[in-house]
UniProtKB/TrEMBL annotation:
Protein species of origin: Brachybacterium paraconglomeratum
UniProt keywords, alphabetically: ATP-binding, Nucleotide-binding
Gene this protein is translated from: sufC
PANTHER family: ABC TRANSPORTER I FAMILY MEMBER 6, CHLOROPLASTIC
UniProt-listed InterPro entries: AAA+_ATPase, ABC_transporter-like_ATP-bd, FeS-cluster_ATPase_SufC, P-loop_NTPase
Domain of life: Bacteria
UniProt lineage: Bacteria, Bacillati, Actinomycetota, Actinomycetes, Micrococcales
Listed name of the protein: Fe-S cluster assembly ATPase SufC
GO MF terms held by the record: ATP binding; ATP hydrolysis activity
Domain ABC transporter: 4-249
SUPFAM superfamilies: P-loop containing nucleoside triphosphate hydrolases (SSF52540)
Family note: Belongs to the ABC transporter superfamily. Ycf16 family.
C-alpha cells in the first residue's frame, strides 16, 4: 500500500504582475485505498496543487515536501513520478498530435512497467476497459485529446487510470462538463479502480455532484491556497447546503 505525504507545500507562479504565491502551506496525507475529495471555490489553487504534484514547470515549489512512500517526489522528473506510481489527470488535458490513444496507452504502460505488455493480454485489457467505459473501439485510433469532447477527455483519463494501475491518482475536475450519463460511467470507472486495486485517490472537484457516485472517505475544503477544514462525507453535504461563503470571510 502506498502513501502520499504533502507537507507544508508552498508554490508560486509567475504572472504579468509578478511572482504570486498560490499554495500557502498544504498538508495532506493520502494512503492507498483511501479517497480524498478536495473541494473549494474557483481560483483557490486546487489545480495548482495537482500541477505541483505533477511537476509542471510553471509552478515553482518554494517550500515543503511531497513524499511518495518516503521518496522525494519533488526531486523526480515527470517520467519518474509516473513510474513511481503517480497518475495525474489534468483539468485541461493537452492534445498529442499524431499519437493515437492506442499507441499513447501502450507507450505509457511500457514506460511505467519497464517492459512492454504482452500484446495478447494488452489488446484484451484495452478492449475490456473501453467496453467498461462504453467507448467506441474506433476511439483507440484517434489522436490523443484532438477534438475530444469534454466527456471523451474524461473517459480517456479513466481509461488511462484503469490500464496504468497507479498507486496514487490525482483527478482534477474529472466531473466537470459531464452530463449525468457520462458522470455515471466515469464514476463507475473510478469505483472499479478502487475495488480492483489499492489506489489512493485525490478527487479535486468544485461540485458535490460526483460525490454521490464516488464516495469519499475524507473531504477537505481548500481555500486560498491551503486546506481550511477537513472532515468525513458529511462535510460535502454541508458544503452543498451552505456553499463556501463561511470559509471566504477574511480569506
Ligand atoms: P482552482 O483550480 O482552485 O480553480 P487554480 O489553481 O487554477 O485554482 O488557480 C489558483 C490561482 O492561481 C488563480 O488566481 C489563478 O489565476 C492563478 N494561476 C494559476 N496558474 C496560473 C498561471 N499559470 N499564471 C498565472 N496565474 C495562475
Ligand atoms: Mg477552476
Ligand atoms: Mg482547477
Amino acid at each position: 500500500m502506498s502513501i502520499l505525504e504533502i507537507k507544508n507545500l508552498h508554490a508560486t507562479v509567475e504572472t504579468p504582475e509578478g511572482t504570486k504565491e498560490i499554495l500557502k502551506g498544504v498538508d495532506l496525507t493520502i494512503k492507498g485505498g483511501e479517497t480524498h475529495a478536495i473541494m473549494g471555490p474557483n481560483g483557490s489553487g486546487k489545480s495548482t496543487l495537482a500541477y505541483a504534484i505533477a511537476g509542471h514547470p510553471k509552478y515553482e515549489i518554494t517550500g515543503g515536501e511531497v513524499l511518495l512512500d518516503g521518496e522525494d517526489v519533488l526531486e523526480m522528473s515527470v517520467d519518474e513520478r509516473a513510474r513511481a506510481g503517480l497518475f495525474l489527470a489534468m483539468q485541461y488535458p493537452v492534445e498529442v498530435p499524431g499519437v493515437t490513444v492506442s499507441n499513447f496507452l501502450r507507450t505509457a504502460k511500457t514506460a511505467i512497467d519497464g517492459e512492454a505488455p504482452s500484446l495478447r493480454t494488452w489488446v484484451k485489457d484495452v478492449k475490456g476497459a473501453m467496453d467498461d467505459l462504453k467507448m467506441d473501439p474506433v476511439f483507440a485510433e484517434r489522436n490523443v485529446n484532438e477534438g475530444f469532447s469534454g466527456g471523451e477527455k474524461k473517459r480517456h483519463e479513466i481509461l488511462q487510470m484503469q490500464l496504468l494501475k497507479p498507486s496514487i491518482a490525482v483527478l482534477d475536475e474529472t466531473d466537470s462538463g459531464l452530463d449525468v450519463d457520462a458522470l455515471r460511467v466515469v464514476s463507475e470507472g473510478v469505483n472499479r479502480a478502487k475495488e480492483n486495486t489499492e489506489v489512493g485517490i485525490m478527487l479535486i472537484t468544485h461540485y458535490t455532484r460526483i460525490l454521490q457516485y464516488v464516495k469519499p472517505d475524507f473531504v477537505h475544503v481548500f481555500v486560498n491556497g491551503k486546506i481550511a477544514e477537513q472532515g468525513g462525507p458529511e462535510l460535502a453535504e454541508r458544503l452543498e447546503a451552505e456553499g463556501y461563503d463561511r470559509f471566504l470571510v477574511g480569506a
